[in-house]
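=== RUN LOG ===
request id: a7f3
mode: sequence -> structure
chains: 1
length: 476
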Amino acid sequence: MEGSFFCVFKRALLFLSLQVLMICFMHQGYSYGVEGKITSHTVSVSSLLPSPSCSPSTTKASNRKSTLEVIHKHGPCSQLVQDQNPLNHTKILLQDESRVKWIQSKSFNSSDSLKSLAVASLPAKSGITIGTGNYLVNVGLGTPKKNLTLIFDTGSSLTWTQCQPCVGSCYNQSDPIFNPSQSSSYSNVSCASTACSQLSSGHGGSRCNGTCQYSIRYGDNSSSTGFFATEKLTISPTEVIDNFKFGCGENNQGLFGTAAGLIGLSDNNISIVEQTAATYGKYFSYCLPSSTSFTGHLTFGKDSTAPSSVSFTPLSTVPQSSQFYGISIVGIRVEGKPLSIPSTVFSNGSAIIDSGTVITRLPPTAYSALRTTVRKAMANYTTAPAVSLFDTCYDFSKESTVVIPSITFSFAEGVNIDLDPTGIFYVEDASHVCLAFAANGADSDLVIYGNTQQRTFEVVYDVAGRKLGFSPNGCS
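=== RESULT ===
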C-alpha cells in the first residue's frame, strides 16, 4: 500500500514537472501540442523586421579557425557600396525567378555554361542569374594579400574575380580590382594541363594556344571571361591555400552588384570543396542570419567546436545537374500535423538545396495544401494584396506580436526541421508580410529548398560522406 502511494506520488510529481517545463517553453515564444511538437511561434513584429544597424552574431563557429563571416549584401553589415536606390524586393524576386527557371531547365539539359576556350570569345549561351546570390564572404587573394568580397554559391563550381587589365569591360566593384601582375604567387594554367580540361568535359586543353582561358555566362547577359590561373587564397591568418585554381576575369558584365566575383561551393572537381579536399575533407557548413542586420558564417572542415546536435539526411545526385546538392523531402507539417499530400508528389520529382535561391519552390499540390492550412491558422489577421511570387500576405502594421503557425520539413531518414519564424515569412515591411514559398509549374518540376528557409540553421555539407545536416540556433 505504501509502495503504491509513493508510486502515485512520483508520477504526479513527474507530471507537474513536465507542466512547469512546458510553461517555461511557452514563455520563450513556443507553443507545444500534446505530442511535444512545436505548434506555433509567438513573436514580436519588430523581430521580423531588419534593423538599420549591424549586429554581429555570436555563432557556433566563433572559435573555428577556418571560418569566414557571412553578410547579406543589402544589409548594414555589408561594406559594399550600395546602390543609390533603396532595396527593390520586386527586382530580387524577379531575379530569383530567373535563377529558378535556369536551374530547373538544367535538370533536363546537360549542357554547361562553363568551358575552357581556345579564344576569348563568349559563346551565345544563356544561363543562371546570380544577382540573387545575396550572401557574401571576404577572402584574401595573392601575395601580398588583397581582400576581396565574393558572393558564395552552392550551385556554382568556379571561383572567379575581376582582374586587371579589363581588356573588355569590368563592372563597378567596391574592392580594388585584383591586379595579378602585382602578386608574386600568381600563375596562369597551361592549356595542356589536366586542370584546364576539367573546366568542362569535351573542351580539352589541346585546342588552346598557351594559357587556359575560361568563359562563364549567366542569365540576362551576365558573364565573366578571362584566364584560368592559380593563386594563394587566404581564408584566415592561419589558413592559406596555395595554388588555388580560379578564374581571373578581364571581361565581365552583369548582375553581380558591387561584389568582386563569386566563390563556388558545388560538388565539382574545380570547386573550392574539391580543391581543399585533402585539408578539409570535403566538409563545410554555413549559417545564414535571421535578417540582413545580423551576420552568419561559412566554415571549412570539421573541428572540435563543430555542433554535435546535427540531424543528417542523405545527399543525392540530381540527374544531369550533378553540381547541385540533391535532397529528399518526404513531407511537411503545419502546427505539428502532417499536411495531406500524396506520397507520390515528392517521390516523383527531384529536390535540391541551394544557397542562391531565395524562396523555396514546392510542387503545386504541396504548396496548395501548405497555403490552405496557413491561411486557416492566420485567419484572424488582416490580409494584404498579393505581390510578385506571393499570394498569401498579411498586414502586421497594427500588431505588436503575432502568432505564427509552425512549419516543419521532413527529410529522408527521419530528419524533421522546424523552421525559424524568419524562415516562414518574407518581409517587405510590417504592412506586407508574405508566406515565403512559391509553387512550381508542375508536381514533376525540380523542388528547390531556398535560403530563406535555411535561416539560423547551421547547414552542414558532408560531401565525402554524402549527407547533409541541420543544427538549430547556428547564428542569430
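=== NOTES ===
The mean pLDDT is 84.
The domain at 41-48+307-471 is CATH 2.40.70.10 (Cathepsin D, subunit A; domain 1).
=== END ===
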